[in-house]
Amino acid sequence: xxxxxxxxxxxxxxxxxxxxxxxxxxxxxxxxxxxxxxxxxxxxxxxxxxxxxxxxxxxxxxxxxxxxxxxxxxxxxxxxxxxxxxxxxxxxxxxxxxxxxxxxxxxxxxxxxxxxxxxxxxxxxxxxxxxxxxxxxxxxxxxxxxxxxxxxxxxxxxxxxxxxxxxxxxxxxxxxxxxxxxxxxxxxxxxxxxxxxxxxxxxxxxxxxxxxxxxxxxxxxx
Length: 222
Prior knowledge:
With about 220 residues, this protein is of the alpha+beta class. The chain is built from six helices and eight strands; from the N terminus they run H-E-E-E-E-E-E-H-H-E-E-H-H-H.
């Protein structure tokens, strides 16, 4: 991933983003063409601290045959994104651009054992069910044993050993306070939820710029 230095988050921030997002596109190469599947995952860590991305796919997914435990795959995780118009800047001679958050994790992928798959299923559902609180979380134990076992036979558990972590959080960090605030305010006024989320991220990242704007408005108020 090409990332200019001012857009590059540190490793901890990139892994935090990936873990909280929990959904991405897993990509591999079959020798002739790319193979990819969008899927949910969760991050765990080996005893030595190495990140691992645990997930599962349908047994007939072509990715299964490529999980040799050696060849590196790519997991692309995208966050909010939005278009930025040059008209929104305070400064002249700007160009259109796109703001976004994205993290790429890469490393070899191996198959899980049946016991590991059972843990993966429960852990994955538990993470996402907790997003829905105060709803009582769904658990695999609510299924009949026969139905659950039949479903398990249709999937394969996989785990990526993450060897490389790359991130790009493009939030106009290189712009002046005036331009930065102008873009955040314009994004915040859009109907698109991603645009508004990026506006909030920008405000959280540089609160002093918005404090300065507030101070200036107060000084110039009649």
